[in-house]
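Researcher: Last one for today. Full complex below.
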Amino acid sequence: KAGVTQTPRYLIKTRGQQVTLSCSPISGHRSVSWYQQTPGQGLQFLFEYFSETQRNKGNFPGRFSGRQFSNSRSEMNVSTLELGDSALYLCASSLGLAGIIDTQYFGPGTRLTVL
Amino acid sequence: GENVEQHPSTLSVQEGDSAVIKCTYSDSASNYFPWYKQELGKGPQLIIDIRSNVGEKKDQRIAVTLNKTAKHFSLHITETQPEDSAVYFCAARWGGKLIFGQGTELSVKP
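Model: Here's the assembly. Have a good evening.
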């Protein structure tokens, strides 16, 4: 079974621009969660999508948004980029069924650098 | 909200020794505790997990223990090998999301 894939792997943007990152979950997984990883703050939860609906949200500003498509692929968008948005953005997929604790599998991440 | 503390931040051991990483969580509502290993340039990889109704789980050289009363859980790696060198993260599932510890950089010296 193919793992979680993320594209692109690396991105360089300048302040004020916007960026879109993509995540394809493991086949059959309907939940996609996004995390931001930085040396200072560690791994922080951004949001979770299940069946095209945002099911959970972390404490990030509205500049961070996401969506999920009918095939469970997900995108996250960051608008008006700031230097502090430089990070590794990870997505994780899981079955996501209600009432069941299931494992989250991570992709390799997208390394975003904001200049 | 939930808070997860992880110690130590760095750990250096000799090949063949054991390594122990400890985590504490703050909210007793957390019910699932996975451990992830992250190698340079890669995403976190699940190595073992434990649910709140279990006290201990073992998988070959890796074991995890959970003390719900004290709200702490630990990762034990025995017979360490150089390929165990990586950053290890503990996490707690709270409100449907994973809350991560700050990570432990494990170095296994041959």
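Chain A has no helices and eleven strands. The mean pLDDT of chain A is 95.
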